[in-house]
């Protein structure tokens, strides 16, 4: 979910593009909130700045939302006990700090004509600002700056009577990516947008149903994986019974390819494939496409590890841990400022000097976004005495921003948007740099190549081929053009 509209320039609310989320829901288990807290722990990598849980005890909804990690907020007995009931859902997210952010922390909750309604959202709605302006014009009063709240207002103002009809009516008006877990006094609804951009899986734990962004969250509570919630599917759990409906016109799914490259945890299974195995496969493709003579293959931890193993196995060059990572620092990419990001890189990684000294090394990472991480790591390897530093990236160049729920900066800040590979190599000060090709990435996912007409995945960050309209983005661009045409 997105806290404002998808542009990196500060908007009227002073927020920026930031979203990375995970959702988890349990229907029909004693102490549901405790299970949700466990599930959110396993999804913490999807968003580390805020977490929330909402429960339903048969009479009332209870919510606890807080800035910070799941641990620290949901490991106290009194917090979990207050979230009474057998149905609960939760959310982890990236956000800004302070009060403005707290009101955006999910699940969001509202009292509607049909009763209470809680919603947890992973993804991003690409026409949220457009809809929001129209809803405000018609009298809606927004409590947050979150795109997710737009869905609540569309449900609230729908002309249909029944809650499910209202919900479907709302979803038919939104464009973009949404994997949702919603709660009403009647039950739980889990659904995925027609393209299935963000993941959502279904599991079973004794008599209860579980929904989660990734299978690792099923593992942590001991639930068994049943199947993925299908793109365009709504799964409704009511009185312990499960029902599935598909209210949208069927279209070819385009799940996010970046989940495979970076976002999902390697121990997750998605579309019947192990994320870890796919990442190793990407590394192997990279070794075939871009070989180089060297002494060691070294992963940039942790995101580059599986691809580096694949590269090493394919090339026959030994895999070694040449960079040691401190596990007590958060992810660098999602720190608020460039300065903190820069410091974060130094805090997080250290060279294994004894190993590096005098060696020709191949560094493997999953992606280059701004180039900050790669530059620091290459410099660190040289300081540690590396003879040559070759960088290999287990994704194609990230040339376009994501409008579907992955936190990427605006296009102008993406290193690959304005530079070719040779210029990027110079920027990161590597002796050579290569990215896996888009077809190589598809091959690692079991496809012969990227289908030009109907690609199997949303790969817009690498190709600019966005599978939906980008209404907010286009409206913003045209209003900027209008300003240029008529300067004040
Ligand atoms: P940068 O330093 O801006 O080039 O960022 C690249 C690093 O950030 C890589 O090591 C990736 O593992 C990581 N990364 C890429 N995309 C994301 C994302 N959306 N959120 C957090 N980290 C990311």
TrEMBL record:
The keyword Magnesium applies. Its EC number is 2.4.2.14. Gene3D superfamilies: 3.40.50.2020, Glutamine Phosphoribosylpyrophosphate, subunit 1, domain 1. Pathway: Purine metabolism; IMP biosynthesis via de novo pathway; N(1)-(5-phospho-D-ribosyl)glycinamide from 5-phospho-alpha-D-ribose 1-diphosphate: step 1/2. [4Fe-4S] cluster binds at residues 256, 402, 458, 461. GO terms for biological process: 'de novo' IMP biosynthetic process; purine nucleobase biosynthetic process. PROSITE patterns: GATASE_TYPE_2. Its cofactor is Mg(2+); [4Fe-4S] cluster. Signal peptide: none annotated. Pfam families: GATase_6 (PF13522), Pribosyltran (PF00156). Residues 21-240 form the Glutamine amidotransferase type-2 domain. The active site is at 21 (nucleophile). It catalyses: 5-phospho-beta-D-ribosylamine + L-glutamate + diphosphate = 5-phospho-alpha-D-ribose 1-diphosphate + L-glutamine + H2O. Binds 1 Mg(2+) ion per subunit. Binds 1 [4Fe-4S] cluster per subunit. GO terms for molecular function: 4 iron, 4 sulfur cluster binding; amidophosphoribosyltransferase activity; magnesium ion binding. Keywords: 4Fe-4S, Glutamine amidotransferase, Glycosyltransferase, Iron, Iron-sulfur, Magnesium, Metal-binding, Purine biosynthesis, Transferase. It is an enzyme of class 2 (transferase). Mg(2+) binds at residues 303, 365-366. Catalyzes the formation of phosphoribosylamine from phosphoribosylpyrophosphate (PRPP) and glutamine. In the C-terminal section; belongs to the purine/pyrimidine phosphoribosyltransferase family. This is Amidophosphoribosyltransferase. The gene is purF.
